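Memo to structure team: turn this sequence into structure tokens by end of day. - J.P.
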Amino acid sequence: MSTAAAKSALRDQALAKRDLAREAAIEETFDALSANMLDLLADKGFCSAGGVVAGYWPIGAEADPIPVLQDLQAAGVNVALPCIEGADLIFRELGDPDALQAGPKGTRQPPSTQPALRPNALIVPLLAFDLRGARLGYGKGYYDRALRALRFSGPVFAVGLAFEAQRIDILPREEWDEPLDAVVTEVRIREFSRSVR
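Reply from structure team:
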């Protein structure tokens, strides 16, 4: 079986596992997700006023970064959300959440009048992750292309937000898959060494 076919088969399994994890989640689960993400971002120096952290608007049963983004915004951090423009993601300043517009597949995104920002840290959605920092997305490559472009222009810290049930021992990887620097779940924070990828 090709790597692409293996990843496609895993997507269905990962969606089902994530849906079950979301259904089983209780308020403390969501609180722990947010607290762990804020702890990691603070530890890495990304919670200071003037920094730029990009997140995402959750769809389906994705782990929700919005409470984290609201806390960061209140602390003076510049917060951005992705906008799909052609085949690329552009990160635009969140601004007023009430001004967000409908995006693809049920997402919400800032209007094109909001300035584009280059994030120092990027909170990434995922279907599954492994203990090497590989992530399984939806298969369109938006985040892989965005991470590659951001890393080409300078450092960026990419952290996945997920339920612990989304962990898979080893995910198949292709040459264009961009690894994560860390993954935060309700259970723990995992950081990955680039030397083991």
